[in-house]
Amino acid sequence: MSASKVQTNVDLDKERIKCNFNIQELTYIIDGGKHKTLQRRQIENNVFTSGKHEDQVPDECLSLKERYENAVRKSLDYGDLVRNELLAITGLENFGTPILRRTADAFFKEISPLLLHLGMFVPTIMGQCTAEQQAKWLPLALNLEIYGTYAQTELGHGTFIRGLETTATYDSSTEEFVLHTPTLTAYKWWGGGLGKTANHCIVVAQLYTKGKCYGVHTFIVQIRDAETHEPLPGIKVGEIGPKMGFNTADNGYLGFDHYRIPRENMCMKNAQVLKDGTYMKLGNAKLTYGTMVFVRVTLVSDSAFNLAKAATIAVRYSAVRRQSEAKPGAPEPQVLDYPTQQHKLFICISSALAMQFTANWLWKTFTKYLSEMKKGNVDNLPELHALSSCLKAVSTSDAAAYIEQCRLACGGHGYMTSSRLPHIYSFVVATRTYEGDYTVLLLQTARFLIKAWEQAESGVNLTPTVSYLSRACKVKNTWENSSEGIIRSFEAVAAGKIAHCVKNIREKMQNGLDLDEAWLLTTNLLVSAAEAHCRAVLLRVYHEEAKRLTEESSLNVKEVVDQLVQLYLTYWSLERTGDLLRYTSISENNIHQLEKKYEELLAAIRPNAVGLVDAFDICDEILQSTLGAYDGRVYERLMEEALKTPLNSESVNPAFHKYLKPYRQAKL
Amino acid sequence: MTLKKVNPDLEKERSTCTFNIEELTNLLDTGAHCTAERRAVEDKVFSVKELKDEIPDEFLSHKERYENAIRKSVFLHKVLQETGVKRGVYNRSDKSDFRTTYYSIFKDGSPFMLQYSMFVPTILGQGDSEQVELWYKRALNMEIIGTYAQTELGHGTFIRGLETEAVYDEKTEEFILNSPSLSSYKWWPGGLGHTTNYCIVMAQLKIKGKPYGMQPFIVQIRDEETHMPLPGVKVGEIGAKLAFNTVNNGFLGFEHVRIPRRHMLMRFSQVSKDGKFTSSANPKLAYGTMVMVRVTIVNSAATYLSRAVTIAIRYSAVRHQSKLKQNEPEPQILDYVTQQHKLFIGIATSHAYMFCSYWLWDVYVMYQKEQNVGNFDRLPELHALACCLKVISSSDCTGLVEKCRMSCGGHGFMMSSNLPQLYGISTATCTYEGENTVMLLQTARALVKAWELGSRGRPFSPTMSYFAEKNVPSKWDSSLEGILNAFQKVSIGKLSSSVSSLQEYTKSGLSAEDAWNKASVQLIGAAEAWGRAVVLSIYKSEIERYGQTVSPALKSVLFDLVELYYVHLTLEKMGDLLLYTQLSEKDVVSLRKKYEDLLEKIRPNAIGLVDAFDYRDEVLNSTLGSYDGFAYERLMTEAMKSPLNAEPVNQSFHKYIKPLMKGKL
């Protein structure tokens, strides 16, 4: 791509010569096979040769309104370019390849206002509508004849869905639902594309029929006129204003004043309201979890991709940037040669890989369970739910922290938006909160774990990801300095923490507290136990998937992937010495060995560092970073971007004549 | 939406507070008269109509925001002059200046910032009396506006690596400034882009081909009348950043620009007409300003955190969510222990660093007096302290600001909460004025040196005196004194094992530099551990000192926070403590219990504690954190200010969306 056009920075050239493994081979593994890489590259080529992703003026220099308008234009250009891929989407299963999400990053630094159309509106119709309803709505949506979004969160209520206040009251005399927003706090808030863009919306509301409340249900609601785009009577809709990121997402608010929709607009796959107002539950209500789980699974893979971007930028920049004198008289070394810098960055490379492998593994698990669910088997749902909850929480949280670490590792230049690192951070850190806040999700996983522990105590067989509990509640862990030994120790830590929670809750209940109170007072421990469980799962999955995926790889690829896995295991052991000292037999001597091994791993990975980030194969158009481009022309790009700032198009800004000069002459 | 005076939840919270809020405010301000003085200035500044924004800055383009910031800077300067606020503008003279708040009229900084904080102080500090006479007056009257340019595109922390040159031409008695490469362009100075017409430039001095190191030069870069860049000067804005977007950070390059000989600031070093270089500079003198700037950062970090935690705690008192118990209304989220765990440490940490910064300021003032009579004894310790506290305060506080932001859920992502801006400004402290890792390594150098001298019998300076203590294993003790002792043991353990690694590496044949580099990950751990021991010790001793004069009620709540800080850190650093002290599993369990008890004890005072920071709504600038607690009303009011909401249908519908829907695009 752009690499061949301009001369590459000599330092990067040298790094690429040093690399001892086949980069392409690793790229295929990360993408999930050669054919997937080729397919991805072909789409990327098609999209980027159009040139429609390019901006003359950096988005950050525009007003919020101009940025929105630019994003709408680009959304439609992008929609045109990938129309075929869009039309190929027929079910949740098709969302497995993140290609469209990747290429979209070249168009939007801060998300398209149409993101939720594809990300939530379409999947909800697929997941919660009857076949008949899908036949009506899907073609309209996929052909972009209507634009939809998804409105659940309200100004006053987020994670706690039962607390939502918007009502949908059935009126059997007209066979309509009456949607209403009773208070300010009941206003829908956040829906992407809701402000000015969407004309339809999935609305989550409390269903009332025959005077009884049946809890939250979903409805398809038209909110704007198809011709004039004016909000329909009874609809109050608008934009919620600037945010830390997502500024082109057109997040909106929405209120209803006794607004009527036809009965058929309720999503009726899992529950129905008959014409006479009779409420009927169909199948298993748990099936609605499907979409939620789906979103969490995709967030794990998004975390991996965004962390890979940040690591690519920071590692390439660190190979180009030179600083200080390590030895008197010698030239300034590349900052990548400092072990403190390697300590900050190599774990990011390894974590990105860990999350990518885990995301692929989770996706496989999800689609397997999804097909079982379609056959009516929901036995595995609790495990899937617990697993996707904690993996979403921990991977978004890890990714956000490591992305910020990459940004800080780039010193002042990481602070420039042209580095793209601030954008990547604000995007990922939002995912830590939305679709289930970090703390809340870990507490949900904790509930599952406590139950599993009780089952283990009573000798019931456990589902795969918690089966270690059966072993742990019988045998005490002994530290062993091997991969399997480390993983088992992390399982022992998780088990120890879960056991501790159970003990704590039981004690508090014996002292007269009820379960809710005992649970509340144990929550900080429960969060930590769920995190420990998730960490153990990540360690195991990463280790096993890496082994499986490189089974037929060349020796050097095998070796470098194994080094990254070892780095991950060692790094986390050293991070968690407190837990390991408490729950395993690890000794001070073992810890010193780990420290030594960690230093050796950093040194071993160093020559392959640039090759490893090259293997993520993220092209310049998607990275959009002055610091991270393939050619390493860091300073040139920083200056080129600076010169695009409209402030620089005039030598003297009008503010000089308007304010500074008159003030100096005491005329203001 | 009729506004009642205060949200009833907050009203209730304020009634449970057990101490006198005003008393704590006075303590934070370093005196009741300081509180009164601060409030008088706030009353003046915040009543100026021109300093308010009709449309929030975040809606505007980068250029519009800059122009708005210039407008406000000019009006602010005018008000401050009328108010007679001189102290603190050019030279910090008193630690109560730390509590100055009027800069919060800029959410993202003022383009005049460096005029006050660097340009004028450098003239005062580095100019000779004649130069001060000439330039200081002009700057005071705003006849000239200046900034300070040191960092270059290719070089930051490592000052000797800077490339900009100033070559003396004795024929014309001028210096010729030149930027030999792209990477030598000055990059970052605030106000440099389009605002300032003068600039202090740090450049490598060369006379007759011989280098004389970095020297400061005062350089005119724009015409005083037309404001056009002068010939040979290439200057402009560096573009958008994570924050500080109205500061007008700029770049600057020179193409053989000539300046008169007397434009080199000559207090310490001089170049005579015939090109003779003389210098009376004690290199140690340069450290003074650096130390002062870093002490200021310790305080700023604490200040940003105190604002974030005020916002988050007030919001957590008005936000209700989920059910704790069946059939009860949704509780305030501040009642969740997980939320208390996230937030109360924010109050304690901002106290810890605020009081440490006051203490460090006093040490600095003492040093300045000694330095004036040629006594530099205190410098190595002071330098290490300033480096290390700058690092741990900036990284701790930034982490906690972000934690506060995330604890507000989605609404913390709204710019109108002001939490994203606080994070953006706070996180910059981790990289500017000495990147944190580099600072820790400098600290480590001082520690290793002290350790080695100590092993040869030299006495340790006060904050390192515990290095001399014999490391005898003793039973774990959960009192404050006991915990402090334990952290000192960790510090000793990490430092001594770093030193043995260094010795081992050199013995195995590595050069001193390679050994240092190889051990650097351990060394930063040792430096951090020393900083922890210092902060624990100073925070405690300062509160003990204040405790002698404050009321019993306030004393008790101040010590609750000290204890929370101690126990929290003990649980955070459990791995180190298990390794280096006699901490046992049983102790950990009882410390956890103690921690939970402390959260419960602090809970009724949470709102009172953040009220005591005494930030007016104009300072907080936050929909979520205002004193009255009407978070939802304010969120909606702010949203309605969006220019996008001024029209029901945006033009892009007709231009792009509709044609597409109709298949006509």
From TrEMBL, chain A:
Transmembrane segments: none annotated. Its cofactor is FAD. GO terms for cellular component: peroxisome. The keyword Transcription regulation does not apply. Its main location: other. Keywords: FAD, Fatty acid metabolism, Flavoprotein, Lipid metabolism, Oxidoreductase, Peroxisome. This is Acyl-coenzyme A oxidase.
UniProtKB/TrEMBL annotation, chain B:
Residues 20-145 form the Acyl-coenzyme A oxidase N-terminal domain. Coiled coil: none annotated. Residues 287-448 form the Acyl-CoA oxidase C-alpha1 domain. GO terms for biological process: fatty acid beta-oxidation using acyl-CoA oxidase; lipid homeostasis. It is found in: Peroxisome. It comes from the Eukaryota. Its main location: other. This is Acyl-coenzyme A oxidase.
